[in-house]
Amino acid sequence: MGKIAAIQKSNRNHNSGGVSPDLITIVNTLCIAIERCKKQVSEQINLDKLICAFLLLWLNNKLTMITSVDDIPDIKRVSGNKECMENRVRIIRENNISWVEYALLYHTKLETSYHWQPVPELLNNFYLMVFNKFYGNLLNKHEKNALLKIIIEPWKTPQAFKYKQRVSKNRFYSYIPTMVKQDPYLSLTSKSILLATEQLHHKSACAYQQERSDHICRHIFDFQNQQLLLIQQTLNKLEITLPYLQRENKRPDYLCDNSRIPTFIREQTETTHSYRERHSALFGSSRALSRDDIRQFFAHLHQELKNIKGKASNIRSYREYYNFYTYVLAFEFLLLTGCRPTHAISIEIQCNYDFKQVIVKDKGRFRSLYLCDYLKKRIESYRTLQQTLLTQLGLSQGSSYLWFLVDDNNHIVHLRAKSIRQFMQSHWPKNTMKSKNKVVPYCLRHTFAQTAASSMHPKLTNQQIDLLMGHSNFGEHLGCAQRFPASRNVIENYLNQLPEYFFLSLEL
């Protein structure tokens, strides 16, 4: 394999659905890490605290950031009424079931904040045992020095694992972020929280989506549970027992909702206490338009188009009808494909393949777009109208694009970002959630991404959403990426549902 082909393969492997590391080697290396912890035990160093801190740092992708004692965080247990702050841990008790939560950093371009995140199910019993014994800072200075040795010094393989497969220490540290990147259903917003910006596969992809903090919390909880469950199953196959991983029989009620995990603040009175739910926060892009606003906007355009059609009695009014139809088709194209509203905002005739798949140039690269059945019928109807107008005006097909405007002098004019933005703002309904000054055609691309991310039937993988949005790295672009019929069928099925979802009608 050549160097370029190897880079392409590596890029594809690091995307959603890539080949996962061998779990047996990961499990063996985890056991070696625990044996390493056991060798540090002394009168001043507690094994449970050491392993507790190591596992918490490993799950949160912080081991690679530690190069000195000062880099080791002061993990501290606080009461339930304290604010969520860096390195804090608390215990929540509901229905006589206790659960440990830790502070997780949510970072955006504008701000950073900390939110409580429940520990994975298999670690809760172990963490409860540790944090019920030790209040305040988890590690003393001796334990921090011991943990630093474990993290940065080479690991000697114990005799019991001498002839067993293992991975290097650094690859073991990067196991969780590797699985984050490769998980096909973990939301991009959740990935941007669990990974550093430079570790994201497509750095701009998460800028198109928005998600509530309680939903993010649920996604991360499920992801960590899944990873530890796979590790436990592998341990069982290898007939290895780790007392730190124990299955919970019950969960508190607030962890039983499959779609969200609310955040609570403890309110203390003289005799008792209660938990009050906090409002969830929104993270990600706010440029997506609401479904109701989109429906209202296109209903207004379709009604206006019908009115103009009813008055089309001469060449001038027929040309006005045609031009308005062109704008409507352009907006439907942007909404139903997620294409960037740049250039001619149309499709080149030579890049059209039976109105089912087209190729557009996007940021200097060619990429393919799938057109839903609704859009195919709309373009075919428009082309008939276009040919009729050109014949009446005595014009030949003078454009390389499928749709275009005809001005008062009967000259062909291509759509531009400025003209389509002005048209959108002038026809944006007044009684919508967003003011017309904040609405631009690019919002339709954000709407397309948000709708794809929130779709449940069918549920799209991150890789499928990336394909629809045109996000790619070297080796994933047109002509290099791998395409499978089953994946294409899911995408086409999803796209064919969009017109009905937005109440678009072919009757114009």
How is this structure best described in words?
- By secondary structure, this protein is an alpha+beta fold.
- The protein has 2 domains: 21-278, no CATH class; 291-501, hpI Integrase, Chain A (Orthogonal Bundle), CATH 1.10.443.
- Helix content is 44%, strand content 12%.
- The chain is built from 16 helices and 14 strands.
- The chain has helices at residues 3-13, 23-38, 47-59, 121-133, 141-152, 169-173, 175-182, 188-194, 213-237, 291-310, 315-337, 373-393, 417-427, 442-454, 462-469, 485-501, and strands spanning 76-77, 88-94, 97-107, 112-118, 136-137, 210-212, 264-268, 273-277, 282-284, 352-353, 357-362, 365-370, 405-406, 412-413.
- The strands form 5 sheets. Strands 4-3-2-1-5 form a 5-stranded mixed sheet. A 3-stranded antiparallel sheet has the order 10-11-12.
- It starts with a helix and ends in a 7-residue tail after the last helix.
- The mean pLDDT is 90.
Which SSEs are present, and which pair or pack?
Layout: H1 3-13, H2 23-38, H3 47-59, E1 76-77, E2 88-94, E3 97-107, E4 112-118, H4 121-133, E5 136-137, H5 141-152, H6 169-173, H7 175-182, H8 188-194, E6 210-212, H9 213-237, E7 264-268, E8 273-277, E9 282-284, H10 291-310, H11 315-337, E10 352-353, E11 357-362, E12 365-370, H12 373-393, E13 405-406, E14 412-413, H13 417-427, H14 442-454, H15 462-469, H16 485-501
Parallel strand pairs: 1-2
Antiparallel strand pairs: 1-5, 2-3, 3-4, 6-9, 7-8, 10-11, 11-12, 13-14
